[in-house]
Amino acid sequence: MARATDYVLAHGLAGLSLRPLAAALDTSPRMLLYDFGSKQELVAAVLAEARRRGAARLAESLPAEAASPEDHLRAIWAWISAPERAPFVRLFFEVHADGLAHPENYPDQAEAITDWFPTLGAAFRDITTAGPDATVAPTLIMAVIRGLLFDLTTTGDRHRTDRALDRFCELLRG
Question: What is the pTM of this model?
């Protein structure tokens, strides 16, 4: 699973074929299908593993609990926008774009968004309300981060996206 996930992170999902994947994993396409049941189940397992890795690494990178929402936001941005995270970011956008056209291929796509809510809710507990609105702040934080990531990934304009994050932090303080 780890090696299959590494392969997909390096090569993406577009045009993923079992034969090159199997060769990279020193196995056969038949064994991949035996182990996972289908290509779609293999992709689902790889995406779940990539999300699990990302969430675990993000949680490890967050500052101490006493940190402010701004400190958490800046830590998340520094971690997720780092160049070494580019494979995760590209895969994230690739899956979501393809999922809009082919939602049947990604039945767990909503989980890619909501999986982050517990981590974000804990990091932003100062601005998160309890009860039915508990997901509003994590939704807003994730939307800002996702938008800035899309911008950075597309344009490469680090300075402008960092300044936009600075402005959002000012809004959080206000």
Answer: 0.76
